[in-house]
Amino acid sequence: MVHFYRKITIITSKKPANTDLNDEIRWLGGSLGLFNLRDKDSSCFRIFVELLKTARNDEGMSSDELALRANLTRGTAVHHLNKLISSGLVIGHRNRYQLREQNLGVLVEELKKDVNRTMDDLKKIAEDIDNWVR
């Protein structure tokens, strides 16, 4: 049996008022636990923005291309790509990376479905455990 793990983090925070596009991207990524205080030079944010810019071309980019565009080392780019992959936002195929969906609205909807499936599974297991301990 193959196990696939995805870590989807949801952080509830008030959406800031009077935002620009970058603020909205930062809020979206922050709400998904991607951009945090440890990322002092906004590396993950910069990788995400580069992936967002090329989301509609359906070709993806290599880690080297992403590192160059985001002005990062390849190691830093790969670190953040792995984080974005494990969160379910990015897919990698043949050493090329792209957003899971070409449209952010659709991507968020897919994440919502992932969370709902997991919550349904958790509820079923919880009910089974409740029945077992009675």
Question: How would you describe this structure to a colleague?
Answer:
This protein is mainly α and about 130 residues long. It has a domain at about 20-100: Winged helix-like DNA-binding domain superfamily/Winged helix DNA-binding domain (Arc Repressor Mutant, subunit A, Orthogonal Bundle). Helices cover about 55% and strands about 5% of the residues. The chain is built from five helices and two strands. It has helices at about 20-30, 45-55, 65-70, 75-85, 105-134; strands at about 90-95, 95-100. It has a two-stranded antiparallel ribbon. A hairpin with a 2-residue loop joins strand 1 and strand 2 (about 95-100). It is globular and about 60 Å long.
What is the annotated CATH architecture of one domain?
Orthogonal Bundle
Mean pLDDT across every amino acid position? 90
What is Rg? 17 Å
CATH topology of one domain: Arc Repressor Mutant, subunit A
N→C terminal distance: 31 Å
Largest sheet strand order: 1-2
What proportion strand?
Answer: 5-15%
Quickly count the helices: 5
Order of helices and strands: HHHHEEH
**Strand elements, count:** 2
Shape: globular
- The proportion of residues forming helix, as a percent range, comes to 40-55%
CATH homologous superfamily annotation of one domain: Winged helix-like DNA-binding domain superfamily/Winged helix DNA-binding domain
Largest sheet data: 2 strands, antiparallel
SS-based class: mainly alpha
